Every structure is written in structure tokens, then in C-alpha cells.
UniProtKB/TrEMBL annotation:
Keywords: Coiled coil, Signal
Organism: Thauera humireducens
Domain Multidrug resistance protein MdtA-like barrel-sandwich hybrid: 63-195
Transmembrane segment boundaries: none
GO molecular function terms listed in the Swiss-Prot or TrEMBL record: efflux transmembrane transporter activity
Signal peptide boundaries: 1-21
Name assigned to this protein: Efflux transporter periplasmic adaptor subunit
Pfam families assigned: BSH_RND
Family annotation (NCBIfam families): RND_mfp
Length: 349
């Protein structure tokens, strides 16, 4: 009886094992992406942020090292020309002046002695009591004493100048943008302790993307909606390493009373006629993963990266140059999720 039931029990186990089998995996459908057609760039306007700067900004530092004894100003303070900003502890500088004064007095005494010896020996030589060679030695001693006197006088002048350098004065009227020196701090010669924005002309500093050419003219839009014309004054000679941007300075034409140092304003420029290979895309289409800016072109249901050069940006759009063609379709949203040759499905337009 037991042997007869064994085949039945084995069949039940086989049926149970078949019921627990994992179904074969199903292929994942390609994700949907939103795309946009590439448009050729034309003669358009674009905007960038600009910072209000002084025409002349002077880093201030002591010409001698020492310990700051007094700080007389604060950041944001208006100062007049020749106003004292900082003072050093000048005790060592005063002792240096006294030491060089003593050196000068000794050198002058030595020169007086050498001159007297020379006069006396000239008289003896005229009477043939000394030789010509002996007289030349006294002349040489006098010249040497005079040289030492001149050197001591020069050192005294330097010591007195150094004592004067113990007071840091404003080179011109203006506003102190930053003050970093503190009383009790020991500073070295040339170490910046303040930054002075000199009074007078104000400028707008704008950073353009690498590869872009700063336009010759533009306009700045202030917080109250007022516009001031801009004229290009200078362009940096090289692209900045950190931000890969090109710095440009624009002179502000007209009234400048509304410009506050350090304020951020909207600067608008009109780009020149677009060159071949320049396109306008939505900002979301631009993607950068440490390999430079690029966009993702959709072709036959797959995406591929296309390197581009960023020329300008204006709110929601960017102006780029790259190996694209008009009416190419690129992904406009979610580019950070894409990989090369990835299958995608375009959302309805």
C-alpha cells in the first residue's frame, strides 16, 4: 500500500515545484523624453548678470612689517585722501632712526678727521716733507670717509621713511569695500589690510562664457527699472581658470548715483548676426558632466551626446555652437538620466 502511494506523492511534489517557478523577465520599455527642434540663432538680445565695481580699486598694505597698534576705520566707511587708516607700533622703527643717526654722526666725524689729515699732509708735501704716494693715501682715505658718510645719510633717510610708513593713509578719497586688518595683528610688508574703491567713475563687470566675444555696447537695468547705456572699456586677456569665463568691464554712461558698489544688475546685450553653426536651445537641454557642455540628439529612437560651446544665456534659453543642424531634435528635459546610444521614446509634441 505504501509503495503504491509513492508515485502519487512524487507527482504532487513536482506540481508544487512547477508552481513556484519564476516567470521570465520582461524587457523594460524605453523611457519617454521631451524633445525640441534645434533653431538657428539670429540677431537676438541676451542678458547676463553684472556687478557694480569702482573704476579704480586699490588694495592697501603697509610698506613695512610690524604689529598693528590702531585701526581707525571700518568696512563701508567713506574716507578722505591722506586720512589715517591704520598705525603700526613704531618703537622699533624709532630705534632704527636713532641708530642710523648715530652712524651718520660717526661717519661725519671720520670724514672731518680724514679731511683735516689731508690738509695737513698737503702742506707737508708742499715743503717736501712727505712723498706724493703718502698724499694719495690721505686723499683716498678722505674719499672713503665721504662715501661712508653718504651711505649713512641714505640709511637714515630710509629709516625715517620707514617710520613714516608706520601710518597707513588713504591714497585717495573713496569707500572701503573691505577691511581685514585688526589691532594687535602682525602683518608683513605688502600684506593687504583693506580694499579701497576710489571715488569717481563706476563700472559694470560682466563674465561672458568662454568663446563669446563681449559686445561693444549694451545696457544695464537697475532694480527700479531704469536703464543706463554701457560701453565696453576692457576685456581680460585670458579666460579665468576656475569659472572658464571671460571678464569684461563696461563704462556706465549717464548718471551713476543709483549704482551701489557690489550690487548685481541685469546687463543686456544684442548679439551680432549668428555665425554658421550657432543655435538657440532651451536651458534644460544643456548638460554637463565634467566633460564640458553637451546636448543629447535623438535620432531613430536613440540618443547620442553632441559637444557644444556655450556662447550666452538669457533666462530660459542658451546660445550654443556645435555640430548640429537646424530641425535636429534634442532632449530638453531630464538629460542627466541619459547615456550614449540609449533607446528613448519621444513624448507627443
Amino acid at each position: 500500500m505504501r509503495l503504491a502511494m509513492f508515485p502519487l506523492f512524487l507527482g504532487v511534489l513536482l506540481l508544487a515545484g512547477c508552481g513556484d517557478a519564476t516567470p521570465p523577465p520582461q524587457a523594460k520599455a524605453p523611457p519617454f523624453v521631451r524633445t525640441v527642434a534645434v533653431a538657428a540663432a539670429g540677431d537676438t538680445a541676451f542678458g547676463l548678470s553684472g556687478t557694480v565695481r569702482a573704476r579704480v580699486e586699490s588694495p592697501l598694505a603697509f610698506q613695512v612689517g610690524g604689529r598693528i597698534a590702531r585701526r581707525a576705520v571700518d568696512a563701508g566707511q567713506h574716507v578722505a585722501a591722506e586720512q589715517v587708516l591704520f598705525e603700526l607700533d613704531t618703537r622699533d622703527l624709532e630705534q632704527a632712526v636713532r641708530a642710523t643717526e648715530a652712524d651718520l654722526a660717526a661717519a661725519e666725524a671720520a670724514l672731518a678727521t680724514a679731511s683735516a689729515d689731508l690738509v695737513r699732509n698737503r702742506q707737508l708735501q708742499q715743503r717736501n716733507y712727505t712723498s706724493e704716494q703718502a698724499l694719495q693715501r690721505f686723499e683716498l682715505a678722505q674719499r672713503e670717509a665721504r662715501t661712508r658718510r653718504d651711505a649713512a645719510a641714505a640709511r637714515l633717510t630710509q629709516a625715517r621713511n620707514a617710520l613714516g610708513y608706520g601710518r597707513l593713509q588713504a591714497p585717495a578719497a573713496g569707500v572701503l569695500i573691505d577691511v581685514v586688518g585688526e589691532a594687535g595683528q602682525v602683518v608683513g610688508a605688502g600684506q593687504q589690510v583693506a580694499l579701497l574703491a576710489q571715488a569717481g567713475e563706476r563700472e559694470i563687470e560682466v563674465h561672458f562664457p568662454a568663446g563669446a566675444t563681449p559686445p561693444a555696447e549694451g545696457e544695464a537695468t537697475l532694480a527700479d527699472g531704469a536703464s543706463l547705456p554701457l560701453a565696453l572699456r576692457e576685456t581680460a586677456g585670458a579666460v579665468e581658470r576656475q569659472g572658464r569665463t571671460l571678464r569684461a568691464r563696461y563704462t556706465v554712461r549717464g548718471a551713476q548715483d543709483a549704482l551701489v558698489l557690489g550690487a548685481v544688475v541685469r546687463a543686456r546685450f544684442r548679439s551680432a548676426a549668428a555665425a554658421e553653426g550657432e543655435f538657440v536651445l532651451p536651458l534644460g537641454a544643456l548638460n554637463e558632466r565634467g566633460e564640458g557642455p553637451r546636448v543629447w540628439r535623438v535620432k531613430e529612437g536613440t540618443v547620442s551626446p553632441v559637444p557644444v560651446t556655450l556662447l550666452a544665456t538669457d533666462g530660459d534659453t542658451v546660445r550654443v555652437r556645435g555640430a548640429l543642424a537646424a530641425d535636429d531634435r534634442v532632449v530638453s528635459l531630464g538629460t542627466h538620466l541619459l547615456v550614449d546610444n540609449m533607446a528613448v521614446r519621444e513624448l507627443p509634441r
